[in-house]
Amino acid sequence: MTEAKYNKITWPLFLELISLPQKTTVLMPFLFGVVYAQYAFGRIDWLNTLIYFVGQFCIALFVSGFNHVQDFKKAKDLNYLKTTNVISRERLNPKQVMIFMLCLLATACLMGLILVLRTNLILLFIGGAAIAVAIFYTYGPFPLSRLPLGEILSGPVEGFGTIFIASFVNMPHLPITLDFHSGWILLLSINLPLLIQLMFVGMPFAIFDSSVMYADNICDLKQDIKNERFTLPFYLGQKKAVQLYPLWPASAFVFIIISVIFSYLPFWSLLSLLLLPYVIKNIKIFMKEQNKHTTFQTAINNLLFVGAAQILILLLCVLIPVSGF
Question: Which of 58, 180, 259, 286 could make an S-S bridge to 264, C-beta 3.0–4.6 Å?
Answer without folding.
Answer: 259
